[in-house]
Amino acid sequence: MRKNLLFVFSMLLLSALSFAQNSITVSGIVTEKKTGESIIGATVQVKGQTLGTITGLDGDYKLVGVPSQATLIVSYIGMKPQEIKLNGSSIINVSLEEDNLMIDEVVVVGYGVQRKSDLTGAVGSIKSDDLKKVSTSNVANALQGRVSGVFISANGAPGSSPEVRIRGIGTTNNSNPLYVVDGMFMEDITFLNTHDIESMEVLKDASATAMYGSRGANGVIIVTTKQGAEGKAVVNVLANEGFQFQNSNFEMASASEYATLLNEALKNTGGTPKFDDPASLGRGTNWFDEIFRVASVREYQVSVSGGSEKVRYNLSAGYYKQDGIIKGNSYDRFTIRANNSYKLNKRLTFGHNLSASFSHKLNENKSVVKSAYTISPVKKPYNEDGSFMDSESASSANPVASLHYTNNDDWKDRIVGSAFLNWEVLKGLNFKTSLGIDYLNGQYRNFTPEYYVSETQKNTSNSLTKRWSRDFTWLWENLLTYDWQINANSRLNLLGGITAQKRKYEQLEGFGRDFFSNNDNYWYLDQASVDSKSVGNNGYHEAMMSYLFRANYALMDRYLLTASMRADGSSKFGPNNRWGYFPSAAIGWRVSEEAFVKENATWLSNLKLRGSWGQIGNDKIGNDKYNPLANINPSYDAIFGGIYFPGGTVTSLSNKSIHWERSEQMDLGFDLGLLNNRLAVEFDYYQRDTKDMLVTVDVPGSVGLTPVETNVGAVRNSGIDFTVKWADTYKDFNYSVRLTGTTIKNEVIDLGGKRIASGDIGAGKSVQMTEEGMPIKYFYGYKVIGIFQSDEQIKAYNDKAAALSGKPSQKYQNNVAPGDLIYEDVDGSGYITAEDRKDLGSPTPKFIGGLGLTASWRGFDLAVDFQGNFGNKIFNAKQVERFSGADNWDRSFLDRWTPENTGASIPRMTLEGNNYLASDRYIESGSYVKLQTVELGYTFPKLLMQKIHVQNLRLYVSGNNLAYFTGYNGFTPEVLGGLDREIYPVTATCRFGLNLTF
User: Fold this and answer.
1) Which of 20, 27, 51, 236 has its CA 20 to 30 A from that of 9?
2) Do residues 87 and 196 both lie within one domain?
3) DSSP secondary structure string, 561-614?
């Protein structure tokens, strides 16, 4: 027994001695190859073992008991990992370099950047190459169909902004998203040059937007402009020229068709036909041809970028010019930008992102589109003597004359920029302070000369309106961030900050008449008659103070957690309700990084499950909505008993209790990659509840008070959004397919029993309603159930109405005849009243989608994009507005009811009456698919270009909005708010251009 124990002890001792002889202590320093700086928190681990450590404040590390022939793995976020065979060496210094692939996978989020693999929120991203394919004065249009969850309705007017909604409409107030351009908050981005932008990120869920607090209630669009990079100067020149045109096949009735329809309408309403021989009138005047044109569009830009270890720069200047398809209308913009950074020492960096834009919009007059719709085609633009012809209609002016007498200019000078100082206190600990400004100086001028076309289209004395506005915002932010590599398996990112913002707006307007000359040299208010001059001046200011905190934690690159809290104080609310507190949390699980998945599902490249919840506030009400005191108008004097008494009266109520509108959102999603990520899928289910909605409540007119703002109601938006991408390469041929989709269900959950009417269609009529259980601003009117075919049918309806009402004289509908519309008796009273109006559909699409195709072969590249909306409705208000007996009709009315055409869906011709009530007769499908983009380019071989000292040369031809596939009877199915009353048509564009790099 003793011998056995001695033998075992001897073996253990020999083993220990052997181990001691074959293990060593390894130490060294880990630095960054590019700068030579030490890296704090880098992971140093023995391959195949749990033995490991992280580097200290000087980038140093020490490992004891390392096998002399082991391999070390050294890694750090954003750096390429290295494996080093020891071969008995005890001193191992490692220099890590940037991982460009990892950098490409970084996306911009609130107050920083994050690896896409670490994201727990719903974020969509689009890069500069995709943005440049859309010819537009507002880069927000380029998001259409390319990012899921985003609804874009384009506006055809030059220099205009599209309607942008992220995951539905959450409030009856301002539903526009927040734009963040290089850290500056703003409401629009019309000043931006598309070619200055590096990327745009759309933050969709509460976890992603929470860091912007109240400003992010409707979603956030982050715009990052291009920066300089270390290296020699690179000069890039781009230029394109093109043209725009109205590509709709929408037509009005010709002169002979119009005369036939008008004669019928006059006869059916008891009048006398106006035209003896309609057929002899021929085509007549096509008024759309008189006001529309093929218009030019052009764009030029020069940029220079480069830098050294100490200084990086990106400078650019660009010019954009767009002539509107309405004659005389144009928009031009000149932009300059300077994005520079200066490394003051190893730990201090100073930088700035500065831009200036100068724009001019000339003669915007979309009302002429409506005039061209209504004016008689029998009329001509000019009389024989060259004067303008009378339209002979009180509701439609001669549009050619209107354009001739239009003289309005809108100038905007805007400076947007920020300067920042970044201090690397310690490796991983950074403090950044930045000060930004947004200064907008606007000037508007409108001169109307004295003229006479007709009694309804004239101006008896010339007049001038001038308006000056100044809008100034400053934003000061102080942020502290810490990246902490806790150990080899976990890392933590902490962010804390304080921000302050103030905005001040002022407007001054003057008016005058009776100028002695129409010459623009005299368009100054001093030239107006003394007694005609007037002036107005108003303004407002608003301020916000915020505190923010966020923590991102990653364990073993598999388990992810994000938590944030933001506190906002707004000047728009009273002292007791000024502050709002908005938390959010999100978790993620990278299933594909689990060992059991890697071993058994090699086809699965990526699978991440995500979930988030958060609350966000909204204070987007007018700056005059909070009044601590009621307003009193002192101009209400009275005389009692022959004695004069000065007096006043309350004209508006105060509401000290209004407070934050609160949006609560839940998001569940996953990211999936298959076949080495050739197939990638992003999927999200969302539900957003807006509570304590800020609503303007009307006070009874008899009280004589203005409406008051209050908190009431809740709105829910829910649905899914997804993006599916496939990308592959076959020899020299590369191709990709991208499919995006979003469903939207919008419902008012609570409105305190109130109903809010909207959607003005003239003559005091409204066609939209907001109430509980329905979408916001759904269409509200009468339901058509048929057309009266005979007097006997009308009598049968009237007999039934009399029986149900108990009134022998009661009619089902008054003043109807065969050929008139039959409306549904919704309330069952037996006859038609205002109570029979009902839901006629929503202007909000039920589904939004996009399809993108790209291909490249050697030097050739092709991109094709389709985009579509489905399930939304449009109210064709231009058909129902008839305030004159001479207005024209579009050609759909040719298939109207007549005794010989009783199967028609359009009623008989009348000038007014029941057939023109707000009903689903004028509700049409707004669904469409459009060919959004086609671009074909060729990049010349680099070897050929090097001979002429050119880095890159690409020529291309492209088109935007080339074709709509829709059943809508109008210029375009892209109608803001779904109400087609007076719109500027969205245009098609063709361009030819080049990109040249030196």
Assistant:
1) 51
2) no
3) EEEEEEEEEETTS-GGG-EEEEEEEEEEEEGGGSHHHHHH-TTEEEEEEEEEEE
- How much of the chain, in percent, has pLDDT values that exceed 70? 91
Q: Give pLDDT tens digits for 779-823.
A: 999 999 999 999 999 999 999 999 998 899 999 999 999 999 999
Q: What is the pLDDT of residues 343-380, one digit of tens each?
A: 999 899 999 999 999 999 999 998 999 999 999 999 99
Strand-pair partners of 847 = 743, 870
Vertex 769: Cα angle to 768 and 775 (nearest 5): 105
The answer to whether residue 143 sits within a structural domain is: yes
Q: Which strands form 23-32's sheet, in the order they lie side by side?
A: 60-67, 23-32, 94-96
Burial class (CB in 10 A: 0-12, 13-18, 19+), 766: middle
Listed residues 63, 86, 101: the one ending a domain: 101
Kindly report, residue by residue over 264-300, the tens digit of the pLDDT.
999 998 889 999 999 999 999 999 999 999 999 999 9
- Asked whether the CA dihedral 269, 251, 921, 157 is positive or negative, the reply is negative
Integer Cα distance of 797 and 831 in angstroms:
9
Q: Indicate if 218 and 129 belong to the same structural domain.
A: yes
H or E element, residue 67? strand 60-67
How much is the pTM?
0.84
DSSP string, 819-851: TSEEE--TT-SSS--GGG-EE---SS-SEEEEE
Spatial distance between the Cα atoms of 166 and 153, rounded to a whole number of angstroms: 12
Q: Distance (Å, rounded) from C-alpha 321 to C-alpha 330?
A: 8
Helix (H) or strand (E) holding 418: strand 408-426
Give dist(CA 707, CA 295) in Å, integer: 44
Closest CA to 566 of 553, 552, 585: 585
| CA gap 743, 203 in Å, rounded | 17
- Asked if 115 and 196 sit in the same domain, the reply is yes
Kindly state the DSSP code that residue 25 receives in the 8-state scheme: E
Closest-CA residue to 202 (of 747, 846, 721): 721
User: Residue 344: how many CA atoms within 13 Å on its side-chain side?
Assistant: 10
The verdict on 177 and 216 lying in the same domain is yes
pLDDT at 943: 84
pLDDT for position 850: 95
pLDDT in tens, 32-55: 877 677 787 788 888 877 788 888
Strand partners for 52:
45
840-890 pLDDT tens trace:
999 999 999 999 999 999 999 999 999 999 999 999 999 988 766 788 999
State both tokens at 752.
Answer: 């305190």
Residue 27: give its domain's CATH number: 2.60.40.1120
* 116 in the same domain as 39: no
Give percent of the chain with pLDDT exceeding 90.
61
Same domain, 90 and 120: no
In a domain, 107, yes or no: yes
Q: Is residue 189 part of a domain?
A: yes
631 is in which domain, residue-wise? 626-657
Q: DSSP secondary-structure letter at 443?
A: E
Q: Can you give the pLDDT at residue 14?
A: 40
The one-letter amino acid at 321: K
* Rounded-to-integer distance, Cα 674 and Cα 20, Å: 47
Same domain, 191 and 170: yes
